[in-house]
Amino acid sequence: MSRILVIDDDVNLLQMVKLMLERVGHQVETAKEGMQGIQMAAEHQPDLAIIDGRQPEEVESRPDRTRRRPTDTGASPDGRWTAFVRDHNVFVRSAAGEEIRLSEDGREGNAYARLEWAPDSRVLVAWRVEAGDRKEVYLIRSSPPGGGRAQFESRYYALPGDRFPRHELNLFEVASRKQFKPDVDRFEHESDAPRLRWNRDGKRFAWRQVDRGHQRLRVIEVHCETGAVRNLIDERSETFIWTTHTEALRLNLVNWLEKSEEIIYASERDGWRHLYLVDAAAGQIRNQITRGEWVVRGIDRIDEDQRQIWFHACGTIPGQDPYFIHFYRVNFDGTGLVALTEGNGTHSLEFSPDRRFYLDTWSRVDQAPVIELRRSADGRRVCILEESDTSELVESGWQPPEPFVAKGRDGKTDIYGIICRPPHLDPSKKYPVIESIYAGPQNSYVPKAFSIGPRFRSLTDAGFIVVQVDGMGTANRSKAFHDVCWKNLKDAGFPDRILWHKAVAAAYPYYDIQRVGIYGTSAGGQNAAGAVLFHPEFYRAAVANSGCHDNRLDKASWNEQWMGYPVGPHYAECSNIENASRLQGRLFLVVGELDRNVPPESTLRFVDALIRANKDFDLLIIPNGGHGAGGDYYQRRMKDFFLRHLEADQAAAGRPEAGN
User: In this structure, are residues 240 and 214 in contact, taking their beta carbons and an 8 Å threshold?
Assistant: First the structure.
């Protein structure tokens, strides 16, 4: 059996390929777009990836009045001047060859760059960039495929708290040689730079700016002739505004319209992610477009002629799983909301070429796909095209996961998960439990769509009940639900997860919460190890692969988004390394020596701390292995680890005992 990742924007084709591959025994993960596919490839380390090379442009890639990418040299639109940087300063050269120096304050480490002309060629925009740190991480390839000496690798890798480049805005009026420094905060970012969007009159430009720490987002506008500054959007949060690692969001927060001076803005300012219409000329919100206790998950189309938005959301239908995706259309002014889907499952759409009709495919983990033909004008169903028949699957012994819901730590919020049982389960026996965890705040993770492949088969066949849960701190619920992660990644939703386990045990006496294990990769590795550090009274054994065991040792972009900036004592409080002495129960650490996502030193420093604390643990280092490395060997070692420490009765699962 191989692990295969399929990436395709055609959801029906994606489902068909998935079903075909699972039918012949492969384990299949799917992604609908490239960035999600990259994330899943890093997390799951598939043996094979099947990729549709032609992906559609997303809404945020719509053409707008953003001019060509700024450079350190460039001709003016009227052809009279060429701007360039020499000795860290800005110069222009006339068509006749005359050179004029426009700046005097550029120097090494704080040099001018990113030159961009106003449309009328009268003003040159330039950014003086104060350099940031360029610190590196290091890797050792101990076992090169061709033999010989070990090989050393290094690369740039920003960590939380590192100094980032800072961009200072400067305007140069070429005719008068005047230089303006508008009164605006410097743009500070690890790798991004300001991207200007010019107003229709060519005299004003704007850009999106997120303060370091992700607690303030602005769309800043500057008048290029006067240097006057104003904020078209200025949002602040006491926790965070989700602006990076947004792979799971199928939308851009700021969407400029081309036929009017307006912006479609996505914000969680009222506690739920909704859409707002911003009057860019007035610099204020004109109206809220969507509202309610549900979450906009993506913008599928902005129709400026009809002044309508086609979007998808979750949590919109009471009584259904709040993670199920449903599709809608709404007018810019918030009127005329039309539901395009209704079935009790998670949905995907495929439109006819003229968009008059569409195929609505929906399913649940316990409901095979249903395909309906619907009418775009009003969302009404024309007919059911296909209802899948699972009778042969059931007769063969296949069983779907069971969705299970329990109350979280507040006694009110529903927590959703799935239960996957061993084959031939005997209710008179007790079965140990393994939780698969990934609590990264950039998404939710419990599967919602149907899959023919038995989930977690290696472990369920070995006699384990395997579960997956989305606790507080993960995405796609309310802002308050998401905010639980803020400066507190060690929480990982564990208070909710433990209550969920106890509720399952109350419903099913064979569910043994005295023998609970947990495993995860990447952020899930941090979570799994954290379970036996911070909740050893409940979790008995943990497997942590490629874990981010201290958020100060992992990429700045991800960790400053959730843990904030500047780096404070809360980083140490959440560190597995700092809390290594708390270890109880059994721990198995796995790391690839060439992990280019989470530096391997994160695991090795955890190992060092555990040794200094005189703690016993298991360790597997994968030579030449990357993020999530280990393959079938790791899977076997993980299963054997849980068999030893959770004492699974394989005979109860109707399977022969496993051996090395």
Answer: yes
